[in-house]
Amino acid sequence: MNITRRSLMIASASLAPLGQALAQGTYPNKTIKIVAPFTAGAASDTLLRKITEAAGKLLGQPMIVDNKPGAQAAIAARIVAKAPNDGYTLIMGGNSSHAANVHTLKNPGYDPVKDFTPITQLSLNPLMLVVNAELPVRTLQEFVSYAKERPGKLNYATGNSGMLVAAKLLTTNAGIDAMGVNYPGAAPATTDLIAGRIDFIMNDPVVAAPFIKSGQLRALGVTSKQRIPLFPNVPTIAEQGLPSYEYASWSAMFAPAGLPADITRKLHQAFAQVMSDPEMVRFAAAAGIIPLATTPEQLQAFVQEQIKLWERWAKESGITPA
Hints:
Keywords: Receptor, Signal. By secondary structure, this protein is of the alpha/beta class. Helices cover about 45% and strands about 20% of the residues. It has two domains: about 5-125 and about 250-315, 3-Layer(aba) Sandwich (D-Maltodextrin-Binding Protein, domain 2); about 130-240, D-Maltodextrin-Binding Protein, domain 2 (3-Layer(aba) Sandwich).
């Protein structure tokens, strides 16, 4: 059984009928705000808006998305860490906000374990190596050769810590010298890639998809060990001569620390029900996303594992806290 089916089954087995759970208290009785640490139009933003629409209907109250990009998701995380723990302010966090920043920022301004209540993991998000279609390369091997012939001449965009470490792992594993350029998110980075102002990017598949299909961009490899349904003909980086290469971003729902157990349970039930819905599974597949629905306890353990993993990744890719 694969990780997606196993996680969804575990979450589904823990669900009581949502209406029964809501009847046990008055929460929620007003709009719930989800702070998003990414720009509108990013793959995670697209996923979040789909999730909040469905979860809001289950909970009987609207959910709104408040985009607060920047500082590798630290801006959004700080806002939610300091918010009241009443269940009306949440964050769709992920590898940047709740793992990488421990090792990439000197002072994130929050503790990803102590300052948050885990609710559920939502997804795994593989990235893709994408170049401007005018770059004279069609495979990873051609790209590596092209870059090695131009040491220090190519640049790449980093819109978050996931994009950064995925690119750093590539340059380190392939032995190429390229310069990173920081962007507030994947969408503006993609705009500059199309315009030719940068040379390559480790991009969200759903953000890159329309431009790949239009012929403006070209996908050279997937960062996960498995190909994705959205681009089944794009091979993984690992199967193109870099067998140890593997990276995937992830997303999860968190609340401020100290969220009451009954509210945590209601939110978990709603999000788990949404993520296990067949329509959401199909939507995620079309967006290059692997849907998940884990328990709060599983998410807590996962975050701690990811913090340790990012320590190794930061060292391997030469990232020092900024």
